[in-house]
Amino acid sequence: MATLKIGLVGCGGRGRGAVVNALRNTATKDVKVTALADAFPDSIDGTVNLLASQFPNQTAIPREQMFSGLDCCEKLLKTDVDVVLLCEPPGFRPRHFVAAVESGKHIFSEKPVAVDAPGVRMFLEANQKAKKNKQIVLVGHHLRYEPKHYESIKMVHDGAIGDIIYAKIFFDTNDIWTRARRPEQTEMEYQVKNWYHFTWLSGDHIVEQHVHDIDVMNWFMKDQHPVEANGMGGRTHHGNQYGEINDYNAVEFVYGEREIRGFSDCRQINGCWNSFSEHVYGTKGCLNMDGHGDVVLRVNGKEPKVWKRTYDGHQYEMDALFDAVVNGKELNFGDIAANSTMTAILGRMAAYSGKVVKWEQAFRSDLDTFPKVLAWDAEPGPKADADGIYPCAKQGVTKAF
Ligand SMILES: NC(=O)c1ccc[n+]([C@@H]2O[C@H](COP(=O)([O-])OP(=O)(O)OC[C@H]3O[C@@H](n4cnc5c(N)ncnc54)[C@H](O)[C@@H]3O)[C@@H](O)[C@H]2O)c1
What we know:
CATH topology of the largest domain: Dihydrodipicolinate Reductase, domain 2
Helix content: 25-40%
Number of strands: 15
Distance between the termini: 48 Å
CATH class of the largest domain: Alpha Beta
Number of helices: 13
Bound molecules: nicotinamide-adenine-dinucleotide
Shape: globular
Order of helices and strands: EHEHEHEHEHEHEHHHHEEEEEEEHHEH
Radius of gyration: 21 Å
Number of domains: 2
CATH architecture of the largest domain: 2-Layer Sandwich
Structural class: alpha/beta
Largest sheet: 9 strands, mixed
């Protein structure tokens, strides 16, 4: 087999991590990074320096294969890379995914796969084509690749804790970063640099990061999606001069005919209790999973069974992707990931609106958050008022779906 060529879209923190995982994959050493794309050239320079110093023999990126600007992904897809890693802000992802499928490349896509319902539908339609073409699609839900998660959840599915009664999931963490506004920046540049603070780019914390736990909750429920959700949320600590997303959301999801409840909460406020964890309770016991730590299965009347976290799912998922590429295996995680992304979007709709939102209403929603025109001098959508304050969701008022 010829050398496998990798192209990276989005050369930030996770993009650099993903490309390193790809170069260290256990299926083949004959793999090189040959193209990079990022909206901003400085992120590309940093990534080239990192790769050239740590992986000099696996880095072969000619200057003409370093692309910047808002159309950088489409340009990279015209090169002869075999595998593309989509690690840009998720607001761009559905369109980049469609273009990647059209290009015929194998795809690693970070989560979430979209930030609104039109984006999820766009992703799902393109994924049908990817499946038909036997293009590999792996999405960065690394917990799916951690033995502590898949072994223990299999035991739950096999009845270890009896019938599921309810689940609880948390992504409670510290304040997020902000990147100071510079006088020469256009509004589009400011928002893309500060992408986490804008719903059209990140989907809000509940979609952007909490989707990891929401994916595990759906997995507890054998990958069925909830039928409805209700919730609340607000922005009490992040300054409204930086952006619009909530800094806390709390949602109740309802699953299936038995109306099993899944309780979710996510917060980004300093000085509070933090947790990145998933828990499921049954008639005979419970399973408590810490994303960064141990997993403990407690079955009534038995000694707890404990799994330690001694491995990193980010590496395992990339090993699985390259194993599939090298050995011609079929691998497509797109539909399951889209289900989890849509569940998180349903939760945001409930938290922003304060209303009960049905899955069908949410999934069919035409609320498209993507800018009408994508250009550095175009209007992104969210607008600060005369005092520089961005409006944020108001429960009972905001049309969130
Ligand atoms: N699976 C995980 O554990 C994990 C961990 C961290 C981040 N992520 C995901 O990775 C993605 C990126 O997060 P990050 O933490 O690396 O953010 P980041 O801000 O560090 O990096 C994002 C990069 O994308 C670039 N970018 C912006 N718009 C772009 C565009 N249109 N085309 C190409 N590049 C563009 C930015 O300039 C930046 O360099 C997110 O989807 C996030 O959810 C996943």
